[in-house]
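Exercise 3.2. Students should predict the tertiary structure of the chain below and write it as structure tokens, then compare their answer with the key that follows.

Predict this chain's 3D structure.
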Amino acid sequence: PPDGRRENPTVRFGGSDFDAVASAGEFMRASENDRWFLYVHLMDVHEYTYSKETALFGSSHSDVYDNSIRYVNLAFQELIDALVATNQLDRTLIVLTSDHGEEFMEHGRVDHFLTVYQEILHVPLIFRGQGVPAGLRIDAPVSVIDIVPTVLTMAGLAVPEELDGLSLL
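Answer key:
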């Protein structure tokens, strides 16, 4: 196609977070009766993408970033809506996290690399689904390397000994 996407609806290159979510929805509909694993990486916040509907904050660098987070939240909501539409929400484990935070001059820089300040390292890690104790909050620092062992444990699968990280359960 002229937009550069491949014909296979489950494999797309380029596009927006909404394109990624649309592909994920197609995959969920096609896999409705199967067990599946789906990784969706939303990237529009990296480009500070936002819309008229999500432009609720000012024009400073951090405001534009917040507008972009609101935009990506709309894409994430469409992903949840697809789970609801295919009756899969209650049997799906959702893991929401981020690859990094962002500095906004707290230490004299605006970026997300070259430093290891809390603004960069402290990211959300949220689990939602069957087997996740309601209201559980872990206040101790954890690492993204703990995600895979946690998901494997929740799926009833063995965690390989050589795997880094620990199950948060």
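Discussion points: The chain is about 30% helix and 5% strand. The longest helix spans residues 61-85.
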